[in-house]
């Protein structure tokens, strides 16, 4: 591996605050890096500095001599009179330092890329001007993919791609030579493509080995280590606490320091979604009928989207609708929401149905109010499942904390406006949620909070989304729309949909990144049945060992509190506690490794 880009003690500030503080990073010629972080943390700024479009306030960014960098920005400025051919293989839109190279960018190759990105209908002589924003973005992405580059930088490349297009892009990037840096909120894509994850937060960049799953585990470990550090600090305060307990009655109300935060991170994980319980709640709120579609027909111009479709949606159903752009998913949701009449057939709605439709647009937000006022305009208190929240508490669930709740709606970013849009919908206390691409513009932490909320929401949920991770996390049933008049139940979920649209077995769609790398080496990591049985037996042993160590750890904490004034005894107990915690951490790591084998 050879180093191609270096950031040396780079700092960057804006009037709103410091974005980076003396950040040093390096990129090798075969790196595949995913960048994650909250909206506004500085991900796009980092990309702009890496490409030298924007200079740091201090420090320096260096490129290897003759480095070819191709970058897809968030905003594009394509000449409206240019054709697809002009953009993709011509000179109408080029990364800096590139020239048109007609000799290798043949029409067949361009057509393969355009088809993979979900635009088989586009002719090479089609004008760019009349195209939608999503189509123009895909044309620009195609222009980068047909050109060889030493470093390919993509800012939200999965926006405007359907599930099949995202799977194709992941496969294409894995086969491509050169370094890759991608900013995306698509967690499945991060896991499929990236071997390193950079987290942008707190004016710095932390590097983790692996994709989204590895980054999530590493974050959890970081929290655990921080909790242990805090626990050690708390131990030093125990003498003072003991003295306060012996003091006057006025000083008897004391805070309970939480020194077991690291254990709670693992032990307090809620159980999997109880579908039966949620459906029972949904029946109570909704009644037995939600939607009954009979002979439904939907058209878009002369094109038939659905023809003679019968469909029953019941209380507590959690349904995902998959389909290519233009297949009719949004139209179907609008019909269910009552915003559009069908072109034939009938739609029966239950008398207790209170639908809420999340559109892809943001026009319904009041620009003249502040954020909290915009929520309270809908409701001051909200009941979600078994929880009752104030408007401010609901805002906090969606990442609006502190003074941010008083920000004017007009000043919010696109991602923040999307969060507010979701928040206002939930504040109306609907019992049917119709979500059209709900993950657009949301950062990964907000997505996790949204999924956690939807996971225990007891109403009927119908989601049209290209986010595979969200689909598999919060829905139980998948239907496919293929633009040929059918609405097809897919028991095999996303994999069955991808197999249907590709005409092959799911192949790459079901490969993890680790499996893809293993396939390249010609090895097979799938454990045999014998290995799985052995792993399950060892898992049972480890679980008993972890339980025993947890009990011992709790007992040592109790003894530490009891001997708070005996410095010698505290030193002995602390050493014993450290040994137990190390043994427990090793057992947990072994458990995680064996769980992969046991399946």
Question: Any chance you could write out the topology, listing elements then pairs?
Answer:
Layout: E1 3-14, E2 17-28, E3 32-36, H1 43-50, E4 58-63, E5 69-72, H2 84-88, H3 107-116, H4 133-145, E6 151-155, H5 163-175, E7 179-183, H6 187-193, E8 196-201, E9 204-209, H7 212-236, H8 238-245, H9 261-267, H10 275-286, E10 291-300, E11 303-313, E12 318-323, H11 329-337, E13 344-349, E14 355-358, H12 371-376, E15 381-384, E16 387-390, H13 391-397, H14 414-427, E17 432-436, H15 444-455, E18 460-464, H16 468-474, E19 477-481, E20 487-489, H17 493-502, H18 513-521, H19 529-562, H20 567-598
Parallel strand pairs: 3-7, 3-8, 5-6, 6-7, 12-18, 12-19, 14-17, 17-18
Antiparallel strand pairs: 1-2, 1-4, 8-9, 10-11, 10-13, 15-16, 19-20
What is the third-level CATH name, the topology of the largest domain?
A: Rossmann fold
Strand content: 15-25%
What is the top-level CATH class of the largest domain? Answer: Alpha Beta
Task: Determine the number of helices (DSSP H or I, runs of at least 4 residues).
Answer: 20
The rounded Rg comes to 27 Å
What's the overall geometry?
globular
Q: How many angstroms separate the termini?
A: 34 Å
What does this entry look like structurally?
The chain has 20 helices and 20 strands. It has helices spanning 43-50, 84-88, 107-116, 133-145, 163-175, 187-193, 212-236, 238-245, 261-267, 275-286, 329-337, 371-376, 391-397, 414-427, 444-455, 468-474, 493-502, 513-521, 529-562, 567-598, and strands spanning 3-14, 17-28, 32-36, 58-63, 69-72, 151-155, 179-183, 196-201, 204-209, 291-300, 303-313, 318-323, 344-349, 355-358, 381-384, 387-390, 432-436, 460-464, 477-481, 487-489. The protein starts with a strand and ends with a helix. The model is unreliable at 248-269 and 504-527 (pLDDT under 50). With 599 residues, the chain is an alpha/beta fold.
